Amino acid sequence: MSSSPAAAARQILISLQEVMASRTSAQAKLNKVVEIIGESLSSEVCSIYLVRDGVLELFATRGLKQEAVHVTRMSKGEGLVGLIATNVETLNLDEAASHPDFSYRPETGEDRFHSFAGVPIVRRERALGVLCVQHVEPRKYEEVEIEALQTVAMVLSELIANAELADEGATDMRVQETGANVMNGLQLVMGMARGHVVFHQPRIHIEHTVAEDTEAERQRVISAFGKMREQIDRMTGTAEFGVDGGEHQEVLETYKMFAYDEGWTRRINEAIDSGLTAEAAIERVQQRTRMRMRQIDDPLLQDRMHDLEDLANRLLRIVSGQLGTAAQLGLRQDAILIARNLGPAELLEYDRRRLKGVILEEGSLTAHVTIVARAMGVPVLGRVRDIRHRVNEGDLILMDVGSNVVLIRPTPDMDEAFENRLTINQKRRAEFTAMRDLPSVTQDGARVELMVNAGLRDDAQALDLVGADGIGLFRTEFQFLVSATLPQREKQQRLYKDVLDAAGDRPVIFRTVDIGGDKALPYMRQDEEEEEDNPAMGWRALRLALDRDGLMKAQARALLEAAAGKILHVMFPMVSEPWEYEEARALVEKQRAWLAGQKKKLPVAVRYGAMLEVPALAEVLDLLLPRVDFLSIGTNDLTQFLFAADRSNPRLAERYDWLSIAILRFLDRVIRACEAHGVPVGVCGEMGGRTLEAMALVGLGIRRLSITPASVGPVKAMIRSVDAGALQTEMRALLDSGATDIRGQLTQWAEAQGIELN
Fold this sequence. Notes:
Elements: H1 5-21, H2 26-40, E1 45-52, E2 55-62, E3 73-75, H3 79-87, E4 91-93, E5 115-123, E6 126-135, H4 143-162, E7 181-184, E8 186-189, E9 192-199, H5 214-238, H6 247-259, H7 262-273, H8 278-295, H9 299-320, H10 326-329, E10 335-339, H11 344-348, E11 355-360, H12 368-376, E12 380-382, E13 396-400, E14 405-408, H13 412-434, E15 449-454, H14 462-466, E16 471-475, H15 477-482, H16 489-503, E17 508-511, H17 541-547, H18 549-562, E18 567-572, H19 578-597, E19 605-612, H20 621-624, E20 630-634, H21 635-643, H22 650-653, H23 661-677, E21 681-684, H24 691-700, E22 704-707, H25 709-720, H26 724-737, H27 742-753
Parallel strand pairs: 9-10, 10-11, 11-12, 15-16, 15-22, 16-17, 17-18, 18-19, 19-20, 20-21, 21-22
Antiparallel strand pairs: 1-2, 1-6, 2-3, 4-5, 5-6, 7-14, 8-12, 9-13, 13-14
Helix pairs in contact: 1-2, 1-4, 1-7, 5-6, 5-7, 5-9, 6-12, 7-8, 8-9, 13-25, 16-18, 17-18, 18-19, 24-25, 24-26
């Protein structure tokens, strides 16, 4: 085998070209292909399985019994071959039989072979089949051999598709459904929108995979890279969001960095060296990226790879000269954009007057496109599975991100009801805006602070827009999540100072960085690369920060210097025992003393708080409360820990009610303890942003809520319409009675009292 992947693949491709150019049948060509590959890799077995009528069929083999050809069949997902086809991923095993998905087929005579490697034969993002090799000797195939197989599989896909040997699925067919349909997704950027389906980009079909002149192909790629970089530079230089220096600009800078990544350029050139055309080389590297993404559980690293795929699509369109995205073609009417995923620069190209919303099959809260969309004010719903195959270009779509709902091809009645709801929402928003400057006070004079949750520099603008009392939870980790590298202390300091300046005299409670678990950073790994079975209950938040105290020291200094001359509120997340809080507080105080020694200007006061998310902390409140200035209850994590129920699991999401007696009694106990020690206690989390749940919290004695900006208006309207004394009496009666339907009884009580519930 040659020493480089390019040379190895090229050696095989030269032989394959002769086979593909021959006038023999497709079956004869495949028979010859397995011989060439097996001989080149010195592998006793080389087999090709193709998808026919929905199952994988052995089409050609060298080394297995010939009588098994067209006889051995397996379902997608069955055996190692089925696993590769289903997951569109590569397998490389030194002992195939030890894999849990191994399926022995006696008719093939494969029992004497130990090692196994297989790659999917991919066309238009779907597996047409599987190319695999086997060896008697137990060994893993070398990276050079795997890369050669992947390149050959790409060329094979062209041969197989042209000969119509395998099912290609309905990738190019229009959706046959015509009736109304409802789909659900994940809230990314809030809002409602009505528009017609526009697909972000037509699929680029690669006609030729094998290059005749590799140097000419290389020049085509170099030229395309130049044009792409010009586009990115122009786009990042002209993006306007109203506020300079926001996270969206950091996002675009990180995105731009990928466009100039030398490693990416090198991999494409290596693919050309192996004998591929410029288009096939880009697609080959892109396929490898997709396969890596499927093997990565880290959502942040996946987001970065989405940016790379976005750039690859752009490069592919330039080099092929094929039609661009819908943005280049222009939107002719109000549009809802449909895509598997988007990069931030792709979104910026759209006409904001026409673009009403975005629906993604993937996407996450920390994805770069989400941050840019929020800055643009475009509603986004993510994780709407398979929507690209459920809608047609031009279909009418109604999206309500707040309800996690997409209505496809709505009936006239649905459309009218949606328009009415949109009008009512706009009217309600106008009413909430008119209420913006009114105090959040109950009918009997109890003051309830309404603060907002934030995480981005631009979020501070919401304070004036909704009339909030301050920021009750500033998630400092967002800056870490959107950066390609660990943010420098000076950069952190600028962010915190900007937020404090925007807040003016209103308090800002900074939660120290909560990373780890499901918010892992690609540039900061555990010492041992161990995958956590329960990341939400693992090495994250304060636990990680105390272990990696260099990170926390830098953040503490940034916070202290940013708050010079002001009151600084610092809150530590996921405190489980008092010693953790004490250790974190001592770390900040040590930095404060060091800055004082350097004659730096300091905050006039530092107020320390803890988040109660771990139920264990409730058992030691008598030890903790004398040491804290305030306590915040994080209802999102607290709920899942109390019920041992993963809140991201759809089967459990609706099973446990925030108004269950168990949660309310737990909260009541915590609130009573805080009152006894004279420590202010608030709630930050989704529970406080829902009017009925917020009413229950007020009834328990909560006087500070930190919620989303969109929830401030409805919750304030509820507070101004309720009598806190009467509500507390009602809540006490419900808790003492052990009521099983507190939600229903509270709703009836609120309606009888004329309380505004949204």
